């Protein structure tokens, strides 16, 4: 009896040791996990990771628009290979002054370059001068070229987007087109918006076709629905909706589907997203004018690198667009 | 302290238990400390951001105060707070990494640099009374400070978000750690208790067995053996010593028993000697019983001799004289030793008396080796034998009865024989007669008396042999060893 008890005591000691070791390991894992989570941005972990050569700030609206996703991906795509670390500042789309705040912040922090997407706030020239004074490369991107030739501006013209949208809708409806325009929130008179102007240009060749109403959708994930719903409710004659951004396109398509007016109300959308692609393939969206924001971003990075290498500032770049329509199944 | 001792084992066991409990306690303490430390780490970044915020506020306040009052105190405050801000911002990342937080830190550190540079310029402009200069720098510094605050707020948000994310994970694991710690302490306590109980049993079991064995021995059960205990500690020593003591006691008892056996044998021998002495006394008593006022008889016979001489009755005088001599010899104490010559003289006078009585009915032949005449023998050993032959062996023979008396010398002993040609004696009777327990009066007490006296007087070295059979006569042989030194003492 004595020997088994003696052995059992050592078995207990062994089990206790294992339990102690297990608990210790658990603690170590716990602590290491929390420390690791903190180490990712910890102040004391400054030297870890690759050190890049350039610090480039990208200031864009905080939007669900896939356009900006493409823009960001275009900038980031070749950045790491070029030794550029990209820092993204997102401002509220309906608070344009925040873009200026982040611009100033970037100057204060003396980053190497700033890629700024700004709407029609008219500050592009002054920012260029201020950045030059602080020896910071400044690359404006957007869909509305600034005045005075837009030196260094890289964008996709909203006017051209509007013309292509008009072409797409007149191809389908011709003179019967009754157009409703759903525009982005930046800007004042919707009919003065470059997209509106472009559509008007395209409609000139089709007498009878007209823009029934133009409206701006406020920022927000349901803005497209609200604006499209109101537009269709107030203007039952509208048989085609031209949408100026991807979120507005998705919202308008949802309204048309909900109201059971697919086919009755054509949709000419903007840009791409998985939802838009799916709706295009299902015929809900007749066509989407896809601005090449990825190329825009890549061109902006290229411009920054040229400036960083002492080359003269680039001329304005128009990245253009493509048209996404329903793929007909092969016969 | 030797580890093999009971004290050493108790100390080792207690130390083991203490180590277990200490390990569990230390571990729990360590874990709790780490929990608290981790919480502190979780919010360390936010604390540093807060300190940077405070330092920036103080620097900005002192800068504004100096521009407003140009006081040396505010300048000192500015220098002090700006130095602190510079020191604190030295912890911020300044390299370019592909990481948002690290880039924000870089932004912040450079924003501080820009702000402090502009503020220092403002101070210089104030000292140089350059009003537009310090006013412009003040506005610029305010803008930079505002940017720094935005960055601090952004970093705070990110650190807080990060900390909360880490804390969520952390919090989900805390109960497991606490439960594991509690389980560990409980396990340590149970283990310690188990070890305590197990070792106590291990320590006290042999003591209990030893006590049971001691109780059995105390009851006189020396056959109960203590179980083998190979331990080298005090209990083992005690057990071995007790075993040795038990063996010694057992051996002592065996020795005592053997000695008691010997003493019993000696006692029996002693009893046998006493019995022999008792029988000798009986013989003496018997002899005394046969004495009928011997002094009176002897004096009377002496008077008869004188009377026969006075009357010139020669035969009567000889008869009385021989009878008197014989009686006087017969009155000799039985334990007295006489030489063989005296015994022969006594026998011859007895034969003379028998011839007077029985004339030629019996023939007697006496021949003795002169070398044994001086040998001492118990008194009156031959005459009873001759009397026994005449009274018993030859009692039924009217004629031809013969009694032969011989005295023979052999190396180391003398042999006296009395032989008759009478009725003899059966083998059974001979054996009974030679047996010490025989008390039958078949052959009278004379022969038995002689046999016992010879045996007693020679300490068993002398003996009496009876040779003969029914109708073949009887020969009594007395083997008397020459006396060893001290035999007659």
Which key features would you list for this structure?
heterodimer; A: 331 residues; alpha/beta; Rossmann fold; 2 domains; six-stranded mixed beta sheet; 19% strand; B: 489 residues; alpha+beta; Heat Shock Protein 90; five-stranded mixed beta sheet; 12 helices; 70% helix; rod-shaped
Q: Report the average pLDDT across residues of chain B.
A: 83
Number of helix segments of chain A?
10
Give the overall shape of chain B, derived from the CA principal axes.
Answer: rod-shaped
This entry's quaternary arrangement is heterodimer
Q: What letter string, H or E per element, gives the SSE order of chain A?
A: HEHEHEHEEHEHEHEHEHEHEE
- Low-confidence segments of chain B, given as residue ranges, are none
Terminal-residue CA separation of chain B: 73 Å
Helix content of chain A: 40-55%
CATH topology of the largest domain in chain A: Rossmann fold
Question: Per CATH, which architecture of the largest domain in chain A?
Answer: 3-Layer(aba) Sandwich
CATH superfamily of the largest domain in chain A: Response regulator
- What is the overall shape of chain A? globular
> Which strand order do you get reading across the main beta sheet of chain A?
2-1-3-4-5-11
Describe what is shown at a glance.
The complex is a heterodimer of chains A (331) and B (489). Chain A has 331 residues and is an alpha/beta fold.
Describe what you observe in this structure.
The complex is a heterodimer of chains A (331) and B (489). Helix content of chain A is 45%, strand content 19%. Chain A contains ten helices and twelve strands. Chain A has helices at 2-39, 66-77, 97-108, 124-133, 158-173, 194-203, 223-234, 246-258, 274-282, 293-308, and strands spanning 54-61, 84-91, 113-117, 137-142, 154-155, 178-183, 210-216, 240-243, 266-270, 287-291, 317-318, 321-325. In chain A, strands 2-1-3-4-5-11 form a six-stranded parallel β-sheet, with helices on both faces. Chain A has a six-stranded mixed β-sheet with strand order 7-6-8-9-10-12, with helices on both faces. Chain A starts with a helix and ends in a 6-residue tail after the last strand. Chain B has 489 residues and is an alpha+beta fold. Chain B folds into two domains: 6-208, de novo design (two linked rop proteins) (Up-down Bundle); 332-481, Heat Shock Protein 90, CATH 3.30.565. A five-stranded mixed β-sheet of chain B has the order 2-4-5-7-6. Chain B has a two-stranded antiparallel sheet with strand order 1-3. The longest helix of chain B is centred in the middle third of the chain and has 88 residues, at 131-218. Chains A and B meet through helix 1, strand 2 and helix 3 of A and helix 1, helix 2, helix 4 and helix 5 of B.
